[in-house]
Write a structure and sequence with these properties.
The complex is a heterodimer of chains A (121) and B (357). Chain A is an all-beta fold. Helix content of chain A is 0%, strand content 44%. In chain A, the strands form 3 sheets. In chain A, strands 1-9-8 form a 3-stranded antiparallel beta sheet, with no helix packed on it. By secondary structure, chain B is of the alpha/beta class. Classes of the chains: A mainly beta (121), B alpha/beta (357). The complex binds FE2/S2 (inorganic) cluster.
């Protein structure tokens, strides 16, 4: 296990993607509305888009056609290419994947130490 | 492995980019903002508003009209051997003012030659026309066919044209006369049988249903038989429907040939010999399902790879066609089928990015 300082805590914000690297591996970091920090692999598990170009927003929900509710701002990542949605709470795709299509972000162990965001892998 | 991307969308940054290439009075009209161009009748829902959200110029602005961006994001990193430019500005969408539409097609072709095709030998060009005036379209085909990188005529799929209708004959005659191929691509006007649906997602699901009738129309109305040197490319229209269309048409032909005896081959044979379908968007099927579909088509000659760059539903060349597909078939999809379609080895003996400097 090694610790890597990936960015400063004050670079993070809710709804903002902060790109970083561990060695040559791209990752992205963001802050949840709860104050927790998320660090995850920078490539989309679908076809490999660079997630630093995606967007973090809310999730739409509805029980009736043409009536959209918008909720949980800051907790959903959308891929910059095909727009698949991933929960930043557990890394899972909002629409489940199937056998040959694993749809989960790689979440890293992350802590805030002083001003630094530190990932352990 | 060599690779041909059969569906790449170059663009202008604004309609006024065409002004230098337009004759009067259209030049003054467009310069003065008399027409604002086509706009889609729906809102895009992807993060990049219809394009990949990472297609950006150096200054951070969204850009789908910049050759250097395309080169840096697509042509070089994926080491494309060829990229077929297919546009997404289709003057056939204008249902009136045919003179303007024809002039716009002509101006767009000249714009693309100057700003895109002449910049990179890897580009294969599509001649844009106003299909609603087939005689004028044929003249434009004759004019543009002289350019060595122009290899096909683009027929946009709108909401009211099935291209097998006899009125489009001059277009196919001109394509064949100039040894060009014919490609079909959807537009922002393409519809399913009940319109576009009520949601963007619905409209996007309906796109293949706007392309299927083109295949049926071309075969039923004798276009495949009348122009034996033409080959036909369906772009971005799906491909898993083809076995159904082939079986259905064969059955209908067997029971109804009496009405359409100008069809000289089983429709499925016409499809296998001269119809090609691009793979994007690949629908995330497993490698086993790819091979089942190819088996049902009866040949692995039909599918050709495309990315659809810079649009949001881009297929990554390294990810979209599963590596588990047998290597010979994968190579056909990524290279050989399209190389044969465009007769690349016959047109020029040198592969551009493998040529000695
Ligand atoms: S590459 Fe991310 S959703 Fe497809």
């Amino acid at each position: 296990m090694a610790k890597h300082i990936v960015c400063r805590f004050d670079e993070l914000d809710v709804g903002k993607i902060t790109p970083a690297k561990i060695g040559r591996t791209p990752i992205i970091v963001s802050k949840l509305p709860s104050g927790q920090v998320r660090a995850m692999g920078g490539r989309c598990p679908h076809q490999g888009a660079g997630l630093e170009h995606g967007c973090i927003s809310g999730r739409t929900e509805s029980e009736a056609p043409n009536e959209l509710a918008f909720c949980d701002y800051g907790e959903t990542l959308r891929c910059p290419w095909h727009g698949f949605e991933f929960s930043l709470i557990d890394g899972r795709s909002v629409v489940p994947g199937t056998g040959h299509l694993p749809m989960k972000l790689r979440l890293f162990d992350v802590e805030v130490e002083g001003d630094d965001v530190v990932v352990t892998i | 492995m060599r690779i041909i991307d059969t569906d790449v969308h170059e663009s202008f940054s604004s309609l006024t980019d065409l002004v230098p290439y337009l004759p009067e009075p259209y030049k003054s009209w467009i310069a003065a903002g008399a027409w604002r161009g086509f706009s889609q009748p729906f809102a895009y829902t992807s993060p990049g508003n219809g394009n990949r959200a990472d297609v950006r110029s150096a200054d951070g602005s969204a850009s789908v009209s910049d050759y250097s961006v395309m080169r840096a994001q697509l042509l070089d990193p994926y080491n494309l051997t060829y990229a077929v430019l297919t546009g997404y500005f289709y003057p056939t969408g204008l249902k009136l003012q045919y003179g303007l539409a024809t002039a716009l097609a002509r101006a767009y072709n000249d714009y693309v030659v100057e700003h895109w095709i002449s910049k990179d030998k890897r580009f294969i060009g599509s001649i844009q026309i106003n299909a609603r005036d087939p005689e004028a379209a044929a003249r434009e085909i004759d004019r543009m066919a002289a350019h060595p990188q122009m290899r096909q005529v683009m027929l946009p799929v709108v909401d009211d044209i099935a291209y097998g209708h006899p009125m489009y004959k001059p277009i196919f005659v001109a394509a064949e006369r100039n040894r060009l191929m014919v490609a079909f691509h959807h537009t922002t006007f393409a519809q399913g049988p009940y319109g576009m649906g009520l949601h963007y997602m619905e409209r996007h699901c309906l796109i293949p249903i706007s392309l299927m009738p083109q295949v049926i129309s071309l075969i039923a109305n004798g276009v495949f038989d009348s122009y034996p040197n033409l080959r036909f490319m369906i772009l971005e229209g799906g491909f898993s429907w083809l076995p159904h269309v082939m079986w259905r048409m064969d059955r209908e032909y067997r029971q109804g040939r009496v009405e359409v005896p100008w069809i000289k081959k089983l429709p499925s044979q016409h499809c296998r010999e001269r119809l090609r379908l691009s793979t994007q968007p690949t629908e995330d099927i497993s490698s086993g399902d790819w091979m089942k579909l190819i088996d049902l088509m009866g040949t692995d000659d039909i599918l050709v790879f495309s990315t659809d760059y810079p649009h949001f539903d881009f297929d990554d060349p390294n990810a979209a066609i599963p590596k588990a597909i047998p290597e010979a078939t994968r190579e056909k999809i990524i290279w050989k089928n399209a190389a044969n379609f465009y007769e690349l080895d016959m047109h020029d003996k040198t592969i551009p990015n493998q040529a000695a400097e």
